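Tutorial, part two.
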Amino acid sequence: MQLRTLVQGLFLLFATNAMAQPSTQWSAFANTAWYNALDNTFQIHSAEELAGLSQLVAGGNAFAGKTILLANDLDLGANLWTPIGPDYTHPFSGTVNGNGHVVSNLYVQLPNADWVGLFGMTTGGTLANIRIAGAYIRGNGTVGALVGNASTNSTITDCHATGVDILAGDFNVGGLAGSIMTSSDMLRCSATGSVSGVSQVGGLVGSPWDLTSISQSWSAGTVSGEYLVGGLVGFSTFAFAPNRFNTLNNCYSRANASATIGRAGGLYGGTQGALIISNCYATGTAMGTELTGGFIGVSGDMAVTNSYWDTETSATTTGIGGWEGPQTPQEITGMGTAQLKTQDMVNLLNNGQANAPWTINPSINDGYPAFENTATGIAQVETGKAQVAVYPALFTGTVYISSQAELSHCTVYGTTGQRVHGARLSGNFAALDLGKVAPGLYYVQVGTAQGTITRRIVKQ
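Running the prediction step on this input gives:
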């Protein structure tokens, strides 16, 4: 009885403090001592040094031609974050290579600000190999976990955000990027979690605009807004000049999209024009009062080839919700769940492509086609020497975590990468109440003072 009382008491303590947010700002702890104007390459070893980068860019140093390398996992949970490149007059223009390290517990509380995320605004910037685990973000417009707006020759490659919790008060809101525009690209990226805004809201990107490309990328979770809401992308509009198309190639969404007014799609909320889509699929629901489709909500001028939606999981037999302008033939095909979960479907999606990015595995992505290099998007990393026990592996309600190292946080993900539970921890022991999660396989990612580990558990 004493052990049970102790465990219950510890759980109540953790439950009370689990989602407690910091009130202090990282700017008060920024360290810029690592910067030397004569150097072109720098290593960031701590959250304080990353906050120093934010401070330097806000002061007018765009870091054009310079490279930042992350040398460690960085836990930002102690303080509130100020985006790197806070607005269009102070963008970040350098390169950040995360080296696969995890940036965890990103808290941004700027409900009246635009250009909000780990980065606010990039112009000619490159963001690569960055993993974000846990992002609580409150902003106004142009909001994403990784970057608010990636503009003018910016590139985002191999970046992933899990455990996203974004609430924005305006347009251009995405799980990874609020918008990408003007000759900017995104490759092999993903976002999972909850994304909410007013309009042009997407599970991965809110608004691509003016000669952009998104490829081999995906989303999962829930996406909501008033109108123009898409499981993967919210909305794309006309470009600054003719023939500057926005392309979406080899992508999928497993997110559910809902719009209180309308114009919602399982993959894409809508487009006015200049949109080319190929080799994509969607499985999520699209809900709204008008113009909702299993694939796209509303279409203007677009060209879609070799693309599909799940007529069963989406609960709709309509791929295109409606049109703005003349209706044109599109290669968008509704299929049943069993048809989509086959090698034949993989062969269709690969469609003779030399790199053949699609693969399938019954234990990955709930058996739907996926990409081998971003099978779940969950950062299953062993970044330290911490000895962590997560038990029982087969559970019905409570899961316990113990470690000789100081615990800092944990996040529980489903097999699609959707965050189902998260907590900030302290001490060497924690009890997680997972009694309300559905039966199935989950991943528990635990951060400690000595590194990060991931463990598999199964709910009976």
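The CA atoms of residues 168 and 197 lie 5 Å apart. In part three we will examine how such features are distributed along the chain.
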